[in-house]
Amino acid sequence: MGFRRDFLWGGATAANQCEGGFDEGGRGLANVDVIPTGEDRRAIITGQQKMFSFDNEHFYPAKTAIDMYHHYKEDIALFGEMGFKTYRLSIAWSRIFPKGDEAEPNEEGLQFYENLFKECHKYGIEPLVTITHFDCPMHLVEEYGAWRNRKLIDFYENLCRVIFTRYKGLVKYWLTFNEINMILHAPFLGAGLYFEEGEHAEQVKFQSAHHELVASALATKIAHEVDPNNQVGCMLAAGHYYPYSCKPEDVFKAQQSDRENYFFIDVQARGTYPAYALKELERKGVEIKMEDGDLALLKEHTVDFISFSYYSSRVVSTDPKVNEKTSGNLFASVKNPYLEASEWGWQIDPLGLRITMNSLYDRYQKPLFIVENGLGAVDTPDADGYVADDYRINYLQQHIQAMKDAVDLDGVDLLGYTSWGCIDLVSAGTGEMKKRYGFIYVDRDNEGNGTLKRTKKKSFNWYKQVISSNGEDLTNH
Question: Does domain 8-371+409-420+460-468 have CATH number 3.40.50.300?
Answer without folding.
Answer: no
